[in-house]
Amino acid sequence: MTDIPISTNETSKKISYITNPIVIHTPVNSTLSSHTTGKWTVVNGTDQICIVIQMSVMFNISYVNINNKTSFITFDIPTDNITTKASGYCGKLEQNLTLEWSAKNITNGSMTLHFMRNATENDYSLHHLEVFLPASDFPSDSKLNGSVSLIHETPDFEVRLSNSYRCLKQQTLNLKQNNSNETSGYLIISGLQFQAFKVDNSTVFGLAKDCAFDTPDVVPIAVGCALAGLVIIVLIAYLIGRRRNQAHGYLSM
User: Fold this and answer.
1) 102 Cβ contact partners less than 8 Å away, ≥ 6 residues apart
2) What is the pLDDT of residues 28-67, one digit of tens each?
3) Residue 222 in 3-state DSSP?
4) Using an 8 Å Cβ cutoff, are 140 and 120 in contact?
5) Nearest CA to 112 among 88, 134, 138, 81?
6) SS3 call for 31
7) Cα–Cα distance for residue pair 24/22, rounded to 1 Å
8) pTM of the model
9) Nearest Cα to 86, choosing from 106, 65, 100?
10) Using alpha carbons only, what angle is made at residue 224 by residues 220 and 228, rounded to the nearest 5 degrees?
11) Distance CA 25, CA 29 (A)
12) How far is it, in rounded angstroms, from Cα 185 to Cα 138?
């Protein structure tokens, strides 16, 4: 494990990381055949770990080539200690992890994950992530004249404090350019588990909330509608039966 000091406005931070090579080269619409993951930890100025995360990451990004046709590139984040640098920030309400990799010794590409804490609800989530890709990351037939900045800003993976979030299955997050609703690429994550706002000094994950047990919003809505419909049917049947009983009573008199 290697410690890398960094500086922030509040106090001096440092990050240590443990990584294994990620080797993924598959189209976005296929299942990842490799589940090799990298693991990183963010440590604050008092040598206390605040973030632990492990994941496999692959990008699928669109670009326009010299023939004015849309093409795609797929590549993984390098995780060896020589080409990839890591930094992080441990705040009370926001914490982040940045992975930065060299791109042909020109300009670095990077990805930053932002975790936000909800003090009222006593939970936190992966609020958004930002991706910076220099033109040198793209093939030579690209018409890009500069770097590309992408963002995924929908809050995802909400979990209680002191717990971790785990999702071993493949997750596909859309990436959009800033101030645009058009999807410009995808981020494919596999073997994900993270815990932010840790208060111990351990790289061990806390009790995990597994995405396999997440219930889509449509499920409780459908159940509620079905129960409401059943109540209405029972009420109508009761009223009809009561009227029939009353009518029979009148005839007998």
Assistant:
1) 78, 83, 84, 108
2) 343 444 446 788 888 887 778 899 988 888 999 988 888 8
3) helix
4) no
5) 88
6) coil
7) 6
8) 0.68
9) 100
10) 175
11) 12
12) 13
